[in-house]
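Researcher: We're teaching a course module on how sequence relates to structure. For the next exercise, students receive a sequence and then see the predicted structure as tokens, so they can try to spot secondary structure elements on their own. Here is the exercise chain.
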Amino acid sequence: MELLQKITTGLKSATEAAVALLALAIVLQVLFGPGVAFFPVDVVGNVVTLTAALGSHGVVGLVAVLVLATLFTRK
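Model: And here is the predicted structure for the students to work with:
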């Protein structure tokens, strides 16, 4: 059981780090444009595409966004 707790804690930490990195990438891309050397991927474009894909599915998309937001914001 202790091993499962350590794995869960590690995954939560990795997820928090990934969300912070995503936020940093979005801010850098907004400030410096899509040619940011640190993030060669179009982060803002990918977020817009994901949002459009979820939005095109109506209520199911909204529920998916709600579930993801709940997962990321719960402590």
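Model: If you want an answer key for the exercise: The chain has a mean pLDDT of 80. The chain has one domain: 2-73.
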